[in-house]
Amino acid sequence: MINLNFLVTLFATFALWGSSKLASAQHIGIIPQPQSVTLEKDSLVFKGSLNIAGAENVSVTTLQYLRTNLLNRFQFYTRHHNTESSVIVFKQINRGKDKTNDEYYELTVDQKGITVYAASEKGYFNAVSSLLQLFHFYHSKAGIKVPYMTIKDSPAYAWRGFMLDESRHFFGKEKVKQLLDWMAYYKLNKFHWHLTDEPAWRMEIKQYPFLTLVGGVGNYLNPLAPAKYYTQAEIAEIVAYAGARQIEVIPEIDMPGHATAANRAYPQFSGGGTKDHPDFTFHPGKEGTYTYLANILKEVHILFPSHMIHLGGDEVAFGSKAWDQDEDVQRLKQKFGYSTNKEVEAYFMRRMADSLYHLGAKLLVWDEMAEVGLPKDKTIQYWWRHDKVSQLELCLKNGYATVLCPRLPFYFDFVQDESHRFGRKWNKDFNGLERVYNYDPEIYKAKELYEGQILGMQANLWTERIHNEQRFDFMVFPRIAALAEVAWTKKDRKDYENFKTVLKKHIQLYQSDGIYYYDPFKNTNSEPKVQVSKQQYIDNPE
Ligand code: ACM
């Protein structure tokens, strides 16, 4: 039976906390570390049930997120009353239209209770994430005892992303939702979903059903694995789930390369490939290809209200040699006076970009597309080739907003410890926790000219070597926490030793969530193996 006695047991304690004000550098259990924390000596103690008030400006979804988390994590019941004894009060503040403060929040804990101040839904949600982490940190069997404090917080970067490749291996909506939960917990706000590539196509397109019926078959290790894909209803469910956590979802339909699975379904639009990458490209010389892909994008755009679609544009040269033998491509080259396949690639992307802009969406691309003449106000570049800093400079010089996801340190399919054998390495280099944590994007902002063009950071989980949930967890946790702090916390607030101390508490949460995390402290979980012994899985630099 639910205990209907919702009387709030709220009282201040006067336990001494040492000096009257504690150093603001002291951690309070929140990852990413907030920009400003002032701690007082007294503390607020409560247990059992909570009253939430003044929440008329907060969405029902954010409140539900808070209430269900309080219930599930702490067995705290909440009610909704504007009474004297409110423990959590939401108050709207006016921060004008300043974009940089779009996510700002304040959180105070004092003798009156907890007060959340924000100007936007995003701000409220960030405050709720911080609050849940505070509760976890200051929770004991006796209840919750939180020091009086004031937090003032907003992100260093607006773009805090995570990319999951489900073409190589399909994980399904429950795993994706769990990832979204953790992203929300760490204030990551962009989910880039890589749904098409060589092994399989994973998104239902009603006009072209073979894309999933045929293209959905197989995965990286087994080309005959039964078809796995997301129906449009499931995609809508995941997009809504993400939206309730203030996360935007950005699908990637990779083109003109990495198109193998689509070409299996509709071979009439294949532009061919090479021995190692057969049918790798869409056909750039046939008008039908552009109509086909534009039709696909119309459906995709309706499914993803972020109004952002990633069209890849990477590694086309893996297959574009086939274009040299194609009459239609030769005709195209002649018509426009092109002499190289690179120019054909650029033409292809400009045309697809036009289709996207026509729908009202923004185009996102990998850094190969930094110099193909895409309009800078409607395009976002992703710099991934860490060994080509010149490509990042080109993105910035050409005026593009740019997301930083260099392989070192942001490809999470790279191993995170010297002893690990089943992920990628770059020669002998890999992406340990500290390396992820200490990444300093400011080195690229040397020129004032580029101020504001670096939107933020993203980690990419490619899944050639990640075939099950154990390996997924092992590669994502705890690096996802380090990623969050790189993208959110200003440099002068970061401290790796502090981070590790807080992380130990977060690892308890990974355990209670059944996550097979990598333990940088104790090595409790051993490295899960990939179930094949192909040499290419081991120490393969590319
Ligand atoms: C990539 O890793 N091909 C973007």
Describe this structure as you would to a colleague.
This protein has helices spanning 60-74, 121-137, 173-185, 210-213, 232-243, 260-265, 287-303, 327-336, 341-359, 389-397, 407-410, 433-437, 469-476, 479-488, 496-512, and strands at 11-13, 21-22, 36-46, 49-53, 77-80, 88-92, 105-110, 113-118, 139-140, 143-153, 159-165, 190-194, 248-255, 270-272, 281-282, 308-312, 362-366, 379-383, 401-404, 454-461. It is an alpha/beta fold. Helix 1 packs parallel to helix 2 (121-137) and helix 3 packs parallel to helix 5 (232-243). The protein has two domains: 27-153, Chitobiase/beta-hexosaminidase domain 2-like (Chitobiase, domain 2); 159-539, TIM Barrel (Alpha-Beta Barrel), CATH 3.20.20.80.
Summary keywords:
2 domains, alpha/beta, TIM Barrel, ten-stranded mixed sheet, eight-stranded parallel barrel, disordered N terminus, 15 helices, Chitobiase, domain 2, disordered C terminus, single chain, binds acetamide, elongated, 542 residues
